[in-house]
Amino acid sequence: MANHVVIMAGGVGSRFWPLSTPQFPKQFIDILGCGRTLIQLTVDRFSGICPPENFWVVTNRSYVSIVREQIPGIPSEHILAEPAARNTAPCIAWACWSIRQEDPDANVVVTPADAVVMNTPEFQRVIKGALEFTAGHNNIVTIGIKPNRPETGYGYVKMEPKGTVLFGPISKKEPNRTVPFGPFRVEAFKEKPSREVAQQYLEDGNYLWNAGIFVWNVQTITDSLSKYKPQLASEIEKMVATAAIDEIFPQCEKISIDYAVMEPAAADGKVYTCPADFGWSDLGNWQSLHEKLSKDQDNNAAVGNVYFYDSTNCVVHAENARKVVVQGLDGYIVSEKNGQILICKRSEEQRIKDFSAEKEPKGTVLFGPKTENGAK
Amino acid sequence: MANHVVIMAGGVGSRFWPLSTPQFPKQFIDILGCGRTLIQLTVDRFSGICPPENFWVVTNRSYVSIVREQIPGIPSEHILAEPAARNTAPCIAWACWSIRQEDPDANVVVTPADAVVMNTPEFQRVIKGALEFTAGHNNIVTIGIKPNRPETGYGYVKMEPKGTVLFGPISKKEPNRTVPFGPFRVEAFKEKPSREVAQQYLEDGNYLWNAGIFVWNVQTITDSLSKYKPQLASEIEKMVATAAIDEIFPQCEKISIDYAVMEPAAADGKVYTCPADFGWSDLGNWQSLHEKLSKDQDNNAAVGNVYFYDSTNCVVHAENARKVVVQGLDGYIVSEKNGQILICKRSEEQRIKDFSAEKEPKGTVLFGPKTENGAK
Question: Among A313, B13, B164, B371, which one is most buried in terms of CB atoms within 10 A?
Answer without folding.
Answer: B371
